[in-house]
Amino acid sequence: MAIGAQNLFVLRQGLRREHVGAVVLFCGGADALLIAAGVGGVGVFLAAIPRLTTALTVGGAVFLAWYGVKALRRMAAPQAMVVGDTQGATLNQVLAATAAFTFLNPHVYLDTVLLMGAAGSSQPVELRPIFVAGAAVASFTWFAAVGFGARLLEPVFARPAAWRVLDAFVGVVMLTLAASLLVRVTPALG
Fold first, then answer.
1. Are 135 and 35 in contact (CB under 8 A)?
2. Fewer CB near the last or first residue (10 Å), C or N of the chain?
3. pLDDT tens digit sequence for 25-68
């Protein structure tokens, strides 16, 4: 339950009350599919293709850096965000961003395909579907709690300064994640 790039995006969407249900369903569904793929052995396949892993890592780092800079620019903007005030993002735009945070984020693959896949594939074959179902329910529950639970933070985010602090935190986290990914993948590029 680490708060990473995808979770921060879900939290922000929950605070904005912008297509929260769709974001929660997308993230939970993607996690369920990736966990099932990991338990089914896709993690072993991905580990055998290091160039694909490197390409996904670099792409993810570029995306996270872009979003981090965008968050820092929002932080510096004089206009304040208001809870529930959306800036007109369409469902397709929000789902495209959700897909990017899900599939361009190498940490998603590490957590779901590799880590959860390894844990699930170590179970007896007859218990693997139960493991996948339990992990999927936990994932949906987590994303629903983050997305819809964000409303509990509305009193805090009624103040413009709170949005600036959140955007500063998001920007720093995204840029730190991007840098850590690039540092990790640099030997593979050489």
1. yes
2. C
3. 999 999 999 999 989 888 677 667 778 778 877 887 888 888 88
Contact between 181 and 74 under an 8 Å Cβ cutoff? The reply is no
Question: Residue 41: how many CB atoms within 10 A of its CB?
Answer: 12
53 contacts: CB under 8 Å, gap ≥ 6: 46, 47, 106, 188
Amino acid letter, residue 41: G
